[in-house]
Specification:
Radius of gyration of chain B: 17 Å
Strand order of the largest sheet of chain A: 4-3-5
Shape of chain B: elongated
Distance between the termini of chain B: 52 Å
Largest sheet of chain A: 3 strands, antiparallel
Number of strands of chain B: 0
Largest sheet of chain B: none
Largest interface: A-B, 44 and 45 residues
Helix content of chain B: over 70%
Order of helices and strands of chain A: HHEEHHHHHHHHHHHHEEHHHHEHH
Oligomer: heterodimer
Radius of gyration of chain A: 22 Å
Distance between the termini of chain A: 30 Å
Order of helices and strands of chain B: HHH
Strand content of chain A: under 5%
Structural class of chain B: mainly alpha
Number of helices of chain A: 20
Shape of chain A: globular
Structural class of chain A: mainly alpha
């Protein structure tokens, strides 16, 4: 007779919302007639993500370990889950935008039709959409929320795959430039599977050293015996797998290609949500599992943070494509986030944890907004992402240029934007912990990175528009699409949040401070 | 044959898989090398289950197999879709995305 494990359904409710919505989405795909699918899928996905968001808010203050110790419901986990569900709901809205593209969606009409074939050209202008993206995205969001709550390496691995596999697929479903999109999916898939192999080998080694993969058991073993060779090797391999997902250099090689090739709403989703989820898992693994062994991982994180900041900032300078530039920016920001991870204090409150939580929220909202702006600037062949096409955009559309400027200033970390508050918090956490050389490097690389953000601002405001007679007139200038309701909501929310978190960050910082607890 | 022989064998298989991913050019072969890595992990897990006297490792090996099967479905779908356009599964031909 096997006893059923204790399950706290209340604690699991955010996950149940997401996975329930995803399953309903699959059923709709199977049974609903084609022309009703798109509105139905959008509605189900929104109900799932918003329901998940609300239920995490209702759970605030809960601290328990459920599902036989496999899942932790705690402040930090719930904060991250709410962030992921909220950002996920906004991403679903971006996916649902049908007003911008003359072809009525960013997603391919039928992914099974080979790119460039006659049938593919026929379908380009049809209103058909591969509506499977919505259940896939909902599964990915559910996997991310499971990822940050996993109190067990095996659950963490399963969540890693549940979030990754749908992402591989939806990054290959762009309607335009399908070859690029498929290539991005192939690269993401092969490298992602490679990285999860490393994660898994790390899991096996930790299991060999400890005899269990539960984080609390790992912590006990580490405290009792110190880090043995097997355990340290296992931790390193686990970190390789997680850092790959978080696109931290030197495990970043997929990031620029996939960000550029994937449909822009998917890039926005990946840039915001995957980053939050991966850092949530890194924080939990290091703070809960290996918290008492911090001098083993601290130098490692220290070095990787520097590499990531430098690689992201310096290579970002050389980019001419906005999506690629934002990809390198995401690598640099991963380094800044690791600066916050360093601010760990085994004895009590970790200033680094609350700072990192806040930074993730602020960065996610800003990135989502920046990519939402990218979906609106278009030429005949889809989105106009080349830098030269953005010249003089402020004259064509002052509002769009102003919003983009806000996001870029926030990414650069200029005061009165959320980016400044976040950077200030993580750098202070690092300095409090004695890691001031790291903070100095972070400040220098912030300055380098500010250059390529501000270059776009200068280009939008002070250059001759592309396509005007003064600029040669050979290049047709891009048009700025009129966004439908979904994109407008996303832009309004993200822009407002970027401002509010910069001007009046107090209450959210307090919230992150209160949430910054893991159950052991 | 002690248990450590199995661990060494698994480590060798893992290394062969990892090197294969880096040097092979056909997407299918690269993918097979990834599967080799996952299976070497299975061998490690089962060996450690025997060594520590717990069954957790054997159960984990089942989880890994299921996940690997799901990965095959997704991976082959992506490789197929790119093959149908390009008539090639070489990762060197997929070179549109670069600086």
């Amino acid at each position: 007779m096997i006893e059923a494990p204790d399950l706290s359904l209340a604690g699991l409710s955010p996950l149940l919302f997401l996975f329930g919505a995803a399953c309903v989405g699959v059923l709709i795909e199977a049974f609903a007639p084609r022309d009703t699918r798109h509105p139905a899928q959008v509605a189900v996905a929104l109900v799932g993500t918003v329901g998940g968001f609300v239920s995490t808010l209702l759970l605030a203050g809960t601290r328990e370990v459920t599902a036989a110790g496999a899942l932790a419901v705690d402040g930090a986990g719930l904060f991250l889950q709410a962030t992921i569900a909220g950002l996920g709901a906004l991403s679903i809205l971006l996916f649902a935008e049908r007003g911008l593209d003359p072809a009525r969606s960013s997603f391919v009409a039928s992914a099974a039709v080979p790119a460039g074939s006659v049938r593919d050209r026929e379908l380009l202008t049809s209103s058909r959409v591969q509506t499977e993206v919505y259940p896939l995205a909902t599964f990915a969001i559910g996997g991310m929320m499971l990822f940050v709550a996993a109190n067990d390496l095996l659950v963490m691995f399963v969540a890693l795959e549940v979030l990754s596999l749908p992402l591989y697929l939806i990054s290959g479903l762009a309607r335009r430039r399908r070859l690029l999109s498929q290539e991005a999916a192939l690269k993401y898939f092969l490298l992602g599977a490679f990285a999860s192999g490393f994660f898994l080998y790390g899991l096996a080694l930790v299991y060999g050293a400890v005899g269990s993969v539960r984080l609390s058991d790992i912590q006990e073993a580490v405290t009792d015996e110190g880090g043995g060779t097997l355990l340290v090797l296992g931790l390193a391999l686990l970190l390789v797998g997680l850092m790959f997902k978080a696109s931290v250099a030197p495990f970043h090689s997929w990031t620029p290609d996939v960000y550029q090739g994937a449909p822009t709403p998917v890039t926005a989703f990946m840039g915001a949500c995957t980053k939050v989820a991966a850092f949530g898992a890194i924080l939990r693994l290091l703070y809960v599992g290996f918290g008492t062994d911090e001098w083993t991982w601290r130098p490692l994180i220290y070095g990787i943070a520097i590499v990531s900041m430098v690689v992201g900032a310096v290579l970002g300078l050389t980019q001419t494509d906005l999506k690629r530039m934002l990809a390198y920016s995401s690598i640099a920001h991963a380094g800044f986030l690791l600066t916050g991870v360093i601010g760990f204090d085994a004895t009590g409150d970790s200033p680094g944890l609350s700072a990192t939580l806040f930074y993730l929220l602020a960065y996610g909202l800003t990135t989502l907004g920046a990519f939402a702006v990218l979906t609106m600037v278009r030429d005949g062949d889809g989105e106009a992402t080349h830098l030269s096409q953005w010249a003089g955009l402020a004259r064509r559309s002052p509002v769009l240029a102003a919003v983009m400027t806000l996001f870029l200033l926030a990414l650069a970390g200029i005061p009165l934007t959320s980016g400044f508050t976040g950077k200030f918090a993580v750098f202070r956490a690092a300095i409090d912990d004695g890691a001031w050389p790291l903070a100095v490097v972070a400040l220098l690389t912030s300055a380098i990175a500010a250059f390529f953000y501000l270059r776009v601002v200068v280009l939008m405001y002070f250059s001759e528009p592309a396509g005007s007679s003064a600029a040669g007139g050979s290049l047709e200038g891009p048009t700025v699409g009129v966004p439908g309701l979904p994109t407008t909501i996303v832009l309004a929310v993200t822009a407002a949040a970027t401002l509010v978190l910069g001007v009046l960050p107090g209450s959210v910082l307090d919230l992150a401070g209160q949430a910054a607890r893991f159950v052991g | 044959m002690t248990l450590s022989h199995y661990l060494v064998l698994a480590a060798i298989l893992f290394t062969i898989g990892a090197v294969g991913v880096l040097v092979r050019r056909n997407a299918i072969v690269v993918f097979m090398c990834v599967e080799l890595m996952l299976n070497s992990v299975n061998l490690t897990l089962v060996t450690f289950a025997r060594a520590t006297g717990t069954v957790d490792g054997q159960i984990m090996a089942f989880f890994v197999m299921v996940v690997a099967a799901a990965e095959v479905v997704v991976g082959l779908a992506i490789i197929m879709s790119i093959y149908r356009t390009r008539r090639s599964a070489s990762v060197d031909d997929a070179n549109l995305l670069k600086y």
